[in-house]
Write a structure and sequence with these properties.
Layout (H helix, E strand, L loop, with lengths): L2 E3 L4 E2 L5 E2 L4 E2 L6 E6 L5 H9 L2 E2 L2 E5 L5 H11 L1 H4 L2 E7 L13 E3 L26 E4 L7 E4 L8 E7 L7
Length: about 170
């Protein structure tokens, strides 16, 4: 069962926020939601996100390309809800910029890799060279990034972004 954390915040009796629809970032016009899918690997999460649409906008794992976008996600969903989630960055081993552990990172949309929010000493390939090629938002230091292996059953889910892919040339 997939549980969605999105927009239109409601306070439940237990206290946590529950969202009903994706939330729009007024600065870029994109919509975002947090999806609980704890058994999914990065590859499975990427496929699931890419199969979704909202208001005829294509979904994909979130590509956090600016400090403003990162701040919007933290303000909107909170650090706790974002932690331990896949996002749309991966290390492209076919890139001319590829090197371990920090070279060749790219976004699933092909957007330029300019902004980063790595946790200290990341990326680090902690599992050995070439073992951590997928991007997550950390749960112990939420909103900071970590490179991680493409494993299922270890992340809480993923962050999805909906946008007009035609504007990106797709």
């Amino acid at each position: 069962m997939i549980k969605r954390i999105c927009a239109a915040a409601l306070l439940t009796a237990a206290g946590p926020l529950v969202f009903a629809t994706p939330i729009q970032n007024p600065r870029n016009g994109h919509y975002y939601e947090v999806v609980d899918l704890p058994a999914a690997s990065w590859t499975e999460s990427n496929a699931d996100a890419s199969s979704r649409t909202y208001l005829e906008l294509q979904g994909h794992l979130a590509t956090i390309t600016s400090w403003n976008e990162n701040s919007f996600l933290v303000r909107t969903f909170g650090k706790r809800a974002l932690g331990n989630r896949w996002i749309g960055g991966y290390q492209d081993k076919h890139s001319s910029e590829y090197s371990e552990p920090a070279g060749g990172w790219t976004w699933v949309t092909g957007e330029p890799w300019r902004f980063t929010n790595w946790f200290r000493n990341e990326p680090n390939d902690a599992g050995g060279p070439g073992s951590e090629n997928w991007l997550v938002i950390r749960n112990d230091h939420p909103a900071k990034w970590n490179d991680f292996p493409d494993l299922g059953g270890v992340m809480a889910g993923y962050v999805i972004e909906y946008e007009d892919m035609a504007l990106l040339g797709h």
